[in-house]
UniProtKB/TrEMBL annotation:
Protein name per its UniProtKB record: Dihydroorotate dehydrogenase catalytic domain-containing protein
Cofactor(s) the protein requires to work: FMN
TM spans (from-to): 341-363
Pfam families recorded: DHO_dh (PF01180)
Example GO BP: 'de novo' pyrimidine nucleobase biosynthetic process
Any one cellular-component term (Gene Ontology): cytoplasm
NCBIfam families reported for this sequence: PRK02506.1
Classification of source organism: Eukaryota, Viridiplantae, Chlorophyta, Pyramimonadophyceae, Pyramimonadales
């Protein structure tokens, strides 16, 4: 049986698959369901300083991508119970009793909020790591911080020099980048700070999905603009994981998220360099049992390929140096478009039948008997 063990920020996880912050992560019941599954860790909903309801409904929809697994668009607007809930004794001990590491995600509406939440969370025993979400695209009037490099730099500077910083590893959730100079710029900022992991990536922000039948946007908030997730974003997630695993300091782990619906999807992200893989959209549609299924599929795939651990293939994506395959050699008779039967084409059979018919016709016409034939 292949092992799915890994480490993220030095924290040992029995399974490299766990949940993304977002769907089904807002309450202790939802978090316990994740903890009871095979998920390697439990990650909270991104918390704000105070409890908030988020954006108006409908704010999450799935929509198909051909026959493949669905994509999703959301503009949840960080509905959550507030930081004090996610770091409360009730939640921390419920997850601790399941022997799962608990990661807490923070997404403050201001730097001051982030610093306040950080100092509260850093003090709580039973929280393994803190994930700072710099990439929520769904707060009306607020830009995505991970796209504003100066602000990202300033926030990381303030967070990592704050007196409360240091007792727990810090991870940063990034927005998806699309251009090489942006990957480089983001990496050069991240490399300056004592962060332990990054998560690539949050949804592709400000996408628009149209309901043609009703001639309206699919979701309500922000005039329909929301974060695109699920199957649509997997190639972007793969690219971001690949780029950051090559550009970041070696001691910064990369966690992949985006369009993971199967063991093969998880395998691909690990091949690109991910030390662990989070699941968002599929967790929403399938529930916590998706962690069991995806882990099992990954394990089966690894066994089939002869891998015993994820380190045996992690980051080892090959470039495509293959020469185009030579066209298969097809026997001539099968390639002449006439069909074949044991090397004799249908045309040959037709020719023989015609000859016999002509011979019979001529024999009748000239009254040739079998005696005449024998006399020949
Ligand atoms: C949301 O609550 O709007 C989604 C969280 C995120 O995109 O960071």
């Amino acid at each position: 049986m292949a092992s799915l063990k890994t480490t993220v920020a030095g924290i040992a996880l029995d399974c490299c698959i766990y949940n993304a912050s977002g769907p089904r992560t807002g309450t202790v019941n939802a978090l316990v369901k994740i903890g009871e599954s095979r998920s390697g860790a439990v990650l909270s909903k991104s918390a704000t300083l105070l409890c908030q309801d988020g954006n108006p409904l409908p704010r999450y929809k799935e929509f198909p991508l051909g026959d493949a697994c669905p994509g999703s668009i959301n503009s949840e607007g960080l509905p959550n119970q507030g930081i004090d809930y996610y770091i409360s004794e009730e939640v921390v001990s419920a997850i601790g009793s399941l022997a799962k590491h608990y990661f807490v995600s923070l997404s403050g509406l201001s730097l001051a909020d982030n610093l306040e939440m950080l100092s509260r969370a850093m003090k709580v025993q039973g929280i393994a790591a803190i994930e700072l979400n710099l990439a929520c695209p769904n707060i009306p009037g607020k830009p995505t911080m991970a796209y504003d490099f100066e602000q990202m730099d300033a926030v990381l500077q303030a967070v990592t020099t704050h007196p409360s910083f240091g007792s727990k590893p810090l991870g940063v959730k990034l927005a998806p980048y699309f251009d090489v100079p942006h990957f480089q710029r983001a990496a050069s900022i991240l490399n300056k700070y004592p962060i332990k992991y990054v998560v690539c990536t949050n949804t592709i922000g400000n996408a628009l999905v149209v309901d043609a039948e009703n001639e309206q946007a699919l979701i309500k908030p922000k005039a329909g603009f929301g974060g695109l997730g699920g199957a649509y974003v997997k190639p972007i997630a793969l690219a971001n994981v690949r780029q950051f695993s090559q550009l970041l300091r070696e001691d910064i782990d990369v966690v992949g998220v985006g369009g993971v619906a199967s063991g093969t999807d998880a395998f691909e992200l690990i091949l690109c360099g991910a030390k662990a893989v989070q699941v968002g959209t599929k967790h929403w549609s399938e529930g916590a049992s998706c962690f069991n299924r995806i882990s099992e599929e990954l394990s089966v795939l690894m066994t089939k390929k002869g891998y015993k651990s994820i380190e045996e293939f992690r980051g080892k994506l090959k470039e495509n140096f293959c020469r185009p395959k030579a066209a298969p050699v097809v026997p001539k008779a099968a390639n002449d478009g006439q069909g074949s039967a044991g090397g004799i084409s249908a045309l040959h059979v037709l020719q023989i039948v015609l000859c016999i018919l002509v011979a019979v016709f001529l024999a009748r016409e000239f009254k040739v008997t079998s005696k005449d034939v024998a006399a020949l």
